[in-house]
Amino acid sequence: MEIKHLNFSYKKKEIFADFNAKFIGDQLNVIIGSNGAGKTTLLNLIYGFIDRPASAMIDFPSMSNIIYKFQNMSFFDELTVKQVINFFKSMNDHTVAVTNAQVSFYNEIIKELINTKLRSLSGGEYQSVMVYCTSIMERELYLFDEPLSGIDSYIENLILDLVESLVVEKKKKVIMTLHQLAKLNSLQAHIVFVGNKKCVFQGNLSQMLQAADTDDIDIAFKRMRQAVSC
Ligand SMILES: Nc1ncnc2c1ncn2[C@@H]1O[C@H](COP(=O)(O)OP(=O)(O)OP(=O)(O)O)[C@@H](O)[C@H]1O
């Protein structure tokens, strides 16, 4: 999956100018960047919410083969968690295998919420349910926009295990956005750093630290925010 020479503006506001990046099929892809850099816009372009410029977006699956967990996903509040899970399951053509991490996530987090109506969930519980529901859909590409937003540090790790298991166990393609940079220390991730309307870096964490000439991820982030394109 590759983006070549992408230009994109919202009316007069330019978001991407000759943006180039690759996403790797058999690795977890993590988009990072400052607030307002364009991470969600990039996911919207990949999904097709915003019309994809065909010549710039190469080898991405079609919308019907992508499941996208939006930043603020919302559902009918009167449904219970069980009803929402069943709704997601009903959109699969057939029964699908689940990963060990999905089973653990269900047992540790979802099970005790199963008969709760969505309107009675806390923000973090709601987020956990939406990430779980997205993960049980059978698609070629999974997009998660800030799946750790509002999540406590224990469940953060369970969510990352769950997302990674889609890549490792199910051989799915996954692209997520992330603000919790320290989490990159424990992930085998391909990082795409969006800044200054370009991809300012792509590669793994040690390459990113090396490129920024530091062993501190926050310093690397600060140094790269305004760097020139990759
Ligand atoms: N529909 C829209 N119309 C006009 N401008 C928009 C629209 N959506 C987003 N923007 C602007 O585009 C820029 C990029 O927004 P985007 O949501 O992609 O950033 P982001 O990197 O995901 O930010 P954050 O980390 O805060 O979630 C922002 O300046 C935002 O104000």
UniProtKB/TrEMBL annotation:
| InterPro entries assigned | ABC_transporter-like_ATP-bd (IPR003439), Metal_Ion_Import_ABC (IPR050153), P-loop_NTPase (IPR027417)
Q: Which UniProt keywords apply?
A: ATP-binding, Nucleotide-binding, Transport
Q: Say yes or no: keyword ATP-binding present.
A: yes
In Pfam terms, one family for this protein is: ABC_tran
Signal peptide positions are: none
**Limits of the ABC transporter domain:** 1-221
| Family matches, as SUPFAM superfamilies | P-loop containing nucleoside triphosphate hydrolases
Q: Cell inner membrane as a keyword?
A: no
What's the family?
Answer: Belongs to the ABC transporter superfamily.
The protein here is known as ATP-binding cassette domain-containing protein
